[in-house]
Amino acid sequence: MYFIAGTDTDSGKTLVASSLLHLASKQGTTLGVKPIASGCEQTPAGLRNSDALALMAESNLSLDYDSVNPFAFAPAIAPHIAAKQVGISLNADLVSAHLKTLPLDELDFALVEGAGGWRLPLNSALRVVGQLNEQAFLSTVVRVLQLPVILVVGVKLGCLNHALLTQEAIQADGVKIAGWVANCVDPEMEVTQDNLSALTELMDAPCLGVIPHLSECSSQTAAKYLDLDKLAPSKL
Ligand SMILES: Nc1ncnc2c1ncn2[C@@H]1O[C@H](COP(=O)(O)OP(=O)(O)OP(=O)(O)O)[C@@H](O)[C@H]1O
Ligand SMILES: [Mg+2]
Q1: How far is the CA of 105 from the centre of ligand 1 (A)?
Q2: CATH classification of 2-230 is 3.90.940.20, yes or no?
Q3: Which residues of the chain fall below pLDDT 70?
Q4: Ligand 1, atom 7: nearest CA belongs to which residue?
Q5: Catalytic sites, residue numbers
Q6: What's residue 236's pLDDT?
Q7: Distance of CA 225 to the CA centre of its chain
Q8: CA of 106 to the centre of ligand 1 (A)
Q9: Whose CA is closest to atom 31 on ligand 1?
Q10: 166-198 pLDDT, tens per residue?
Q11: I need a surface site. Which of 33, 55, 98, 170 has the fewest CB within 10 A?
Q12: Strands (DSSP E) along the chain, which ranges?
């Protein structure tokens, strides 16, 4: 099981996750989950999030929606604030416990899409006795479960700093980066090749591919630019 982290919100985590699932589903049993999602639509069946639905569409093990996205919130705001508005306090143990209920034995390939960037808060108790409260961050789940990370770099101005800081934080947490993807989210980006060269030099993991800016953005199209074989293996 891999964790899909991004340099930021809108960096392309869902696009990359669904593309990797698209590729892996040709070879075995797959599942993508989005444990925490804000920005959900109210439907007769309950709250539904487009990221979770996209991952479900490319997974060939079908689970009920609540197993894929157990923590769903309507407003498209920071999840811990959305949770607080409805009287819910998330924590790292709660999210880890859910991931442990997934049928990993049946899976050849599993992905967990994060939310936002690496240090996403889960609740409002961000500090305890003057230091960061580990239970208040999604990164703790990844560290405790020792999930290898696939880092999606949203290629735009500022991405070198974001990519390097995110890599440093992941590594400082003792978490392995199994691969990274350059995702060209900005159609107007200048000197893209020079930025890609700098990223390649900075990143301490195999590059799984470079996705150009796509006029027709789909997992099938993006998958053509990714190579699953470059991914370092995951034990879980
Ligand atoms: N290479 C690309 N070319 C064109 N559009 C893209 C590309 N990558 C992502 N996008 C678009 O940018 C938006 C953000 O992408 P995506 O939803 O995958 O990001 P995310 O990191 O999962 O965001 P979130 O933090 O909300 O989960 C989407 O509308 C997606 O279609
Ligand atoms: Mg997403």
Answers
A1: 30
A2: no
A3: 236
A4: 185
A5: 34
A6: 65
A7: 18
A8: 29
A9: 217
A10: 999 999 999 999 999 999 999 999 999 999 999
A11: 98
A12: 2-6, 30-33, 36-38, 41-43, 46-48, 71-73, 109-113, 127-128, 131-132, 149-154, 177-183, 207-211
